[in-house]
Amino acid sequence: MRAVLVINSGSSSFKYQLIDSDSEQVLASGLVERIGDENSGITHTVEGTKHRRELEIADHTAGFAAMMDAFSEFGPSLQDDPPTVVGHRVVHGGQRFFEPTIITDLVKINIEDLSELAPLHNPGGLQGINAAQQQFPDIPHVAVFDTAFHQTIPAAAYTYAIDRAVAERHRVRKYGFHGTSHQFVSGAAATFLERPLADLRQIVFHLGNGASVTAIDGGKSVETSMGMTPIPGLVMGTRSGDVDPGVLLHLMRHARMDVDDIDNLLNKRSGVLGLSGHTDMRDLSDAIDAGDDKAREAFDVYIHRLRLYLGAYASVLGGVDVIVFTAGVGENSDVVRAAVLEKAGFLGVRIDPERNAVRSHDARRISTDDSAIDVLVVPTNEELEIARQAVAAIS
Ligand SMILES: Nc1ncnc2c1ncn2[C@@H]1O[C@H](COP(=O)(O)OP(=O)(O)O)[C@@H](O)[C@H]1O
Ligand SMILES: CC(=O)OP(=O)(O)O
Ligand SMILES: [Mg+2]
């Protein structure tokens, strides 16, 4: 058996999967949550059973060690049956990395250099890589970049209209993120529809804790809502999405906020949390049902932003064939999906409320049969996509 170990180092989490690369069966999976927090812990799932351990996990190096302990204790044994390759999610690949890349010392230096552009994500990614290389020194390690799928975005879309010299010197441009998910989901949507990917103009909403929307023309990303960093675009769990940059100048001048305060504000104290006190869409819905006005307002802001991008991306693509929802909110919240599309009748979108209410882990259509645009829910699987790309990179 050829097994791939996939490591997905997030800003405060560490997810992993061991996947049989022939059958694509998941042999084990796990989640290390709240890294750096007091109540961190690990959940390791094998053969349908969840094993939970509470322990303090200070960083991604410790997260990797906790994963190794979980494999030893609950199986399958990585000692007896080591993986043939490790695939690593790396968030920022800048302008250097457009493809899955076998990790060398030089590649690591470049990833470290790009930490400047993704300070919440790349350092943890590197820790995961170093720990995994130490544990498995004799097998290839492959980096799969969140930014890679967006390399096809044209200059007109990735260029910010600021002084060109300043932008070039500091690598300021749109890069875009969640590319592995957008790629997987747009391919799976074409498969579901039994239509060639090359024929489809798609708008894919990845609505998780972090959220982004991408316009995909014939399988290629042509525009996406995140930018140089994962802050802009949609309203997220704790990140602001789009704000007037003048607001930041104002806060620095008049509210005595420094760079770290602004960083903390936009990344950790904004979005749905900043507006309502809740980060999770389930908690937000409960609060709305209980009559909480702030929660209702946060929901309205969240939905308004999504509608704005739907219209903009329909115009960028010159028409839309498919709209896809994915990730935690996109896959699970029929209320969000219905609200985003409530005014999209002018595009020819017609949602079937019964289909929208179905709960399932499979790809499904939620539009009516006579809708001009197919609206789908397609579960994302970043780990499987990383496993496929890692295997392809070493074949
Ligand atoms: N049943 C549900 N209804 C509404 N929202 C949900 C549901 N399940 C999960 N979510 C949302 O999905 C989010 C997590 O999405 P996920 O894609 O796992 O995020 P990430 O990978 O960015 O951590 C949660 O914060 C929550 O808001
Ligand atoms: C890049 C990014 O925002 O990732 P996540 O949603 O995992 O935080
Ligand atoms: Mg995610």
Overview of this protein structure:
Its cofactor is Mg(2+); Mn(2+). Belongs to the acetokinase family. The active site is at residue 146. ATP binds at residues 15, 206-210, 280-282, 328-332. It holds the Pfam family Acetate_kinase. With 395 residues, the chain is an alpha/beta fold. The protein has 2 domains: 3-145, 2-Layer Sandwich (Nucleotidyltransferase, domain 5), CATH 3.30.420.40; 195-382, ATPase, nucleotide binding domain (Nucleotidyltransferase, domain 5). It is built from 15 helices and 14 strands. It has helices spanning 60-74, 105-113, 122-135, 155-158, 164-169, 179-193, 245-254, 259-268, 271-276, 281-289, 293-317, 327-332, 334-340, 353-357, 382-394; strands spanning 3-9, 14-20, 26-33, 41-46, 49-54, 85-90, 101-102, 141-145, 201-207, 211-217, 220-224, 322-326, 364-365, 374-377. It has an 8-stranded mixed β-sheet, sandwiched between helices. Strand 4 and strand 5 form a beta hairpin. Helix 1 packs across helix 3 (122-135). It is globular. The two termini are 15 Å apart. The mean pLDDT is 96. The protein binds adenosine-5'-diphosphate, acetylphosphate and magnesium ion.
